[in-house]
């Protein structure tokens, strides 16, 4: 490996967020939490009808880790969560809610980024009869 490639690799490693890969994302229904895959579908709603989901980000490692990213970016999606950065002890978790609300019929999507974990959120707004 030449020196330039090595410098780029070291720089990339130094810019990686602390605790990357130490978190797991769950959806919470009542008192039960279910692990999430790469996709979460809010389902279908009518215009101006809200749909919400309760999520939990858990530090699955044996060391404390800091959550520096918790965001959702897409039309109609909003996130209600804690202030960042947030330190989580081993096996500790933080809960947050994502709400979807849109007035126009169509299919919507947004990436959810949480502590180095990402998934795609989907929702559909049906035409009003």
Mind explaining what this structure looks like?
This protein is mainly beta and 129 residues long. Residues 1-20 have low confidence and may be disordered. The longest helix has 13 residues, at 3-15. A hairpin with a 2-residue loop joins strand 1 (23-29) and strand 2 (32-35). It has one helix spanning 3-15; strands at 23-29, 32-35, 39-45, 51-59, 65-67, 70-72, 77-80, 86-88, 93-100, 106-114, 117-125. It has a 5-stranded antiparallel β-sheet, with no helix packed on it. A 4-stranded mixed β-sheet has the order 3-11-10-6, with no helix packed on it.
Kindly list the characteristics that best describe this protein.
129 residues, mainly beta, 5-stranded antiparallel β-sheet, 1 helix
Order of helices and strands: HEEEEEEEEEEE
Largest sheet: 5 strands, antiparallel
What is Rg? Answer: 18 Å
Structural class: mainly beta
H/I helix tally: 1
Strand runs, count: 11
Low-pLDDT ranges: 1-20
Distance between the termini: 64 Å
